[in-house]
Amino acid sequence: MTRVLVVNHDIDLADEEVDSLRRRGYDVRECLGPIGAHCPILAGRPCDLADGADVLIYDAFVTGEPDGAQRLIEGLRELHPGVPVVLTASGIEPEWIETIGDHKVTPLVGSPTGARLAAAIEDAIARVGSARLSG
Q1: Closest among 48, 41, 52 to 3, alpha carbons compared
Q2: HEC profile of 27-81
Q3: Which end of the chain is more exposed for a tag (fewer CB within 10 A), N or C?
Q4: What's the domain count of the chain?
Q5: Residue 114 is part of which domain span?
Q6: CATH number at residue 73
Q7: Per-residue pLDDT tens for 101-111?
């Protein structure tokens, strides 16, 4: 069973994402990110919740500020490089998103429905798997 960590500052949306993914058979944990609690990633330390996940789903605005979100995702990619990240943005995709390289993520812009989340998760996992095979 694929282990997913959902990190979203909007608790209602996070709950919807978690419920939707659980109905699709994923093992899901939830975190409010740095707005809800202290974030080890922003302090330059690995995150135990991220360590235990096969894929991470982060809200692009989880820190409440664009620069903070970029620092968080870059830190996450540096501290947990083998764990794929799906970055959700319900409106506009942030300009700083990278889809290749060390800080790559799988973007999901628009409504994060269960079907779209599941497709993005599988795509992110496949991208990491193919990078491991070619690297």
Answers
A1: 52
A2: EEEEECHHHCCCCCCCCCCCCHHHHCCCEEEEECCCCCCHHHHHHHHHHHHHHCC
A3: C
A4: 1
A5: 3-134
A6: 3.40.50.2300
A7: 888 999 999 99
